[in-house]
Amino acid sequence: MVSPFILVNLKTYKEGMGSNAHRIAAAAETVARESGAVIGIAPAFTELHPMSHHYAIPVFAQHIDAITPGAHTGHILPEAVRSAGARGTLINHSERRLTLADIGACVEAARRLHLESVVCTNNDATSAAAAALKPDYVAIEPPELIGSGVSVSKADPGIIERSVNAVRAVNPDVKVLTGAGIQSGECVRIAVDLGTCGVLLASSVVKAENPEAVLRDLVSLI
Ligand SMILES: O=C[C@H](O)COP(=O)(O)O
Fold this sequence. Notes:
Protein name: Triosephosphate isomerase
Subunit structure: Homotetramer; dimer of dimers.
Shape: globular
Pfam family, one: TIM
Oligomer: single chain
Subcellular location: Cytoplasm
Strand order of the largest sheet: 2-1-8-7-6-5-4-3
Number of domains: 1
Helix content: 40-55%
Bound molecules: glyceraldehyde-3-phosphate
Enzyme class: isomerase
Number of helices: 10
């Protein structure tokens, strides 16, 4: 099996800020090196540069705005994310929804700046729509399972399968991730067996007493 991509979103959890972000990034770097898995993190914007500077793991922004340099206030400029060392960016996370037009513009901006794009979706119809925009990844996450501790892999494998099929029918070059409640190697294994290339997750790692132990479990069945 090709090593899966495990992307850990630190969100705005206090357990994912400052020294905690360093602890998670260091654990991700260690487990990635030992296992051969690709483990990335999506920290707060203010942590993008420290994380990309200190660790040899892919660092993703949690969001970008579809703007170009100029007179905007309080926006996330894609160029700034790039120069902070980000490898890629989430777009349209369930907790940061965008219009379809904005999603398209963000994917375009990411492509122009050589940032990998991960467009989050909530069902197979939106997965198909996202795939038509040609991002690098579509990440299917049923919103009701996000942060629930109930794994999409076990509670709703059908949505993963339908999204993989929907994305493949539109553009087979677009890779699929899945997320919501992912917490173990078994969850990752099921997701990969259903045709995804990895997982997007947060709370099980970020809020863990020992993030390194959870990361080791996540890659244990690959
Ligand atoms: O970005 C990550 C997802 O929203 C999943 O979050 P979760 O692993 O806490 O369910």
